[in-house]
Amino acid sequence: MRADAGGARSCLIVIAAACLSGVVSAATDSRSADLVVTGARIYTATPEHTYAQALAVRDGRIVFVGSNSGAAEWIGPQTKTESLHGELVLPGLIDSHIHATGIVDLDVCDLKSEPKSLAALTEFVRGCIKRYKTPADEWLSVRQWNFSDGNQPDAAHPTLRAALDLASKAVPIQLLGNDGHHGAFNSAALARAMNLKGVQVGLSRATLAKDFATYSKLIGVDAHGEPNGNLNEEARALTGAPNLLVVDLPAVTKVPQKITERLNSVGITGILDPLVTPEIMVVYDELEQGGQLTIRARFAQFYDPDEFRDDHGQVDYQKMVKAASAVRAKYANDPLIRADFVKLFADGVAEGNPYAVPPTLPEVAALRPYLQPIFTKDSQGHLSVTGYVDTDSAICKNVRAHGAKYNEGAFSTAFIKANGFHPAQCAISSGQLQHDRAVEMEFIKQFHLAGFNVHIHAIGDAGVRTAIDAIEAARAADGVSTQHDALAHVQVVNPDDVPRMGRDHLYLACTFSWANFDPEYDMLVVPFFDRVSGRDYAALHPAGGYYERAVYPFKAMKNAGATLVGGSDAPVNTRDPQPFVNIATAVTRQLPGAQPITPAQRISVEDAIDAYTINGARYLYLDDQAGSIETGKSADFIVLDRDIVELAHAGHGVEIAQTHVLKTWFRGVAVYSREP
Questions:
Q1: Which of 193, 201, 175, 192 is nearest to 118 (CA)?
Q2: What would the 3-class secondary structure string for 538-590 be?
Q3: How many other C-beta atoms can be found within 10 angstroms of the C-beta atom of residue 594?
Q4: 1-58 pLDDT, tens per residue?
Q5: Is the bond into 358 cis (omega within 30 degrees of 0)?
Q6: Which secondary structure element, helix H or strand E, spans residue 404, and what is its range?
Q7: Torsion sign over Cα 65, 67, 73, 78
Q8: Dihedral (C-alpha) 223, 227, 233, 236: value to the nearest 10 degrees?
Q9: Where are the alpha helices (DSSP H) in 578-638?
Q10: Alpha helix ranges (H) inside 428-492
Q11: What is the pLDDT of residues 402-411, one digit of tens each?
């Protein structure tokens, strides 16, 4: 690169006799660089994965990448210099799936994903009501509830509802799951549920059978069929509770700069916000107008098809497309913001609830019916699997034939005592898509025809397959296969669908940190897919098991030809976007001190970095500006406190998670510097 840059300069003005346009030394040229960085180990993220020692910046763009001696030619009287000591320099990171308005730390009731028993939850929530002086007629929304770890019941706190009722029976309470999909409510909140006619009828066994029957798979019940407080997905909205997207927006709007400050502090200079509504756009507009938008933002606009149904129940797709097109036009010439993507939920989440009686099955659509495991708890409240219900047995066939009879509380209790499982566990279920398949197919088709890229949340194997089917059908309808269509999360992927991802050149927004062994979490998922016994790694990840073959197959998807991009999904699990935790887990597929999950699906550190740099830039149509350190591109780059490439090559990939950013530049301006 140095020879190319030097050649370009040699054709400017100096040796006119030899070259028509020669050059004086850049050191004396009025157009010398604004910034020169030397002494670095620069990972360029070019296709050849080349390294350089130095770079130079002028007018916010990179004008030189090469050796220290070559960079010296760009230093003039006004040039700022940064002399490093071999620190690793990367392109600015791009998070391709982050809910940025949710990453700000606020003074709110926040569980911070810490696992707590139901008894401990009672005390914590009671403390919040006291601290924030929440009146009886106002909602208390508790953030970052860890739905997958903790939550152990006891005699006094048998359900989430009971635990929250002990905190308050007057204040309506909701726990906001740290995954954005689970929720928990007390009786005061459940009593506010309104049916489709707008009548407040409350959530109860009776209204579940009548008013809210279509939500049955999203609402947990106890042994007597009464709601146990666990409401997921759109069922949460029945109570009228503030939703996750807007609950903190008033507070965030007062300090919007904290969004970009946090992003820049972990090296992020570009994002896709995957669920943008008009309220959220206001925050970005304020940042840009205030000169504080130190990132490039891409919006995946969100339109819920169920909210666009006419009086006959038909989805008005053109109304959605018209609204999205107007937003796209608003930002068409914006230097930092574009709105060329739309978001669709193909499905929900894959976790069941073994603590419930009966255990709640995963809600996402599956390609085969879920198993019905029988769980037991040890003295510490930890779960393990002791057997499975034979749903094809004569007993279960009788239960399904006479469901009303078996729903009686007293009868259920006797049934459990006689058979060792709840009669509701005789149900045969494959979960459900977020919307009817026909709606999802048409949604993708109509937005594709309008020239939008689609960003599809797809967790389960049936959701992933439906999303691919929809993309292929949309491309067949409009004849365009070059749009940057993506699937997000891809937790369970049937091996037959992996080659299709490559043939379709799909982008895959991966939260790499989720690919690890966590027995508490795995107990909520694996037993419903595979027959397991116990709770250790060998039990929860049986060799040859379907889940083991299907879970987060990063390497297989990349090898098939799909493009991996990094997406933290923050504030899911944590408000910290933690890009280096994600990179570490992509490389190791393990947590410190734990066994790796499906190690054959590890990817190289270079592939993980590329997912967060050049691949993300390509996905968001930013690769002409960002994603790699090359001449002509925007000067977006970061300095790290350790060499994550060398750590990975030396077999210490787990240590990458401890990486800190020392400094971040965006468009040639230092926007973050770590205090010594």
A1: 175
A2: HHHCCCCCHHHHHECCHHHHHHHCCEEEECCCCCCCCCCCCHHHHHHHHHHCC
A3: 15
A4: 333 433 333 333 232 333 322 233 344 455 799 999 999 999 999 999 999 999 999 9
A5: yes
A6: helix 403-406
A7: positive
A8: -170
A9: 579-588, 605-612, 614-619
A10: 437-449, 461-478
A11: 877 776 667 7
CB 78 within 8 A of CB 93: no
Whole-Å CA distances, 568 to 96, 292, 572, 592, 605: 8, 22, 8, 19, 17
In this structure, what token pair is assigned to residue 115? 């696992």
| Mean pLDDT, 10 residues at a time, the chain of 676 residues | 38 30 41 95 95 98 97 96 97 98 92 92 95 93 89 91 95 90 93 91 91 86 88 89 83 94 98 96 96 98 95 95 98 98 96 87 95 87 90 95 74 88 94 96 98 98 98 96 96 98 98 94 95 89 92 98 97 94 97 90 98 98 98 98 98 97 98 89
- Rounded Cα–Cα distance for residues 535 and 541 (Å): 10
39: left (phi over 0), alpha (psi -120 to 50) or beta: left
| Residue 48 bridge partners (DSSP) | none
**Amino acid letter for position 12:** L
Return contacts of 1-4, CB within 8 angstroms, 24+ apart. Answer: 1/50, 1/52, 1/64, 1/65, 1/66, 1/630, 1/631, 2/64, 2/66, 2/67, 2/70, 4/631
Instruction: Report angle CA 119, 121, 124 to the nearest 5 degrees.
Output: 115
Q: How many CA atoms lie within 13 A of 367 on its CB side?
A: 17
> Counting Cβ atoms within 10 Å, is residue 26 exposed (0-12), middle (13-18) or buried (19+)?
buried
Across the beta sheet with 227-232, the strand order is 140-145, 173-177, 182-185, 227-232, 219-221
Q: Which of 327, 263, 281 is nearest to 664 (CA)?
A: 263
Secondary structure letter of residue 158 according to DSSP: -
Q: Which of 111, 101, 180, 103 is nearest to 144 (CA)?
A: 111
Identity at 18, one-letter amino acid code? A
- Mutual orientation of helices 437-449 and 317-330 as an angle, nearest 10°? 40
User: What is the rounded distance in angstroms from the CA atom of residue 343 to the CA atom of residue 299?
Assistant: 9
Q: What angle do CA 402, 405, 410 make, to 5 degrees?
A: 145
Length of the chain in residues, anyone? Answer: 676
C-alpha of 64 from chain center: 36
Q: Which two tokens stand for residue 242?
A: 């503030």
Contacts of residue 580, defined as CB under 8 A and 6 or more positions apart, other chains included, come to: 266, 644, 656, 657, 658, 659
Asked if 99 and 574 touch (Cβ cutoff 8 Å), the reply is: no
Buried b (16+ CB within 10 A) or exposed e, 640-650: bebbbbebbee
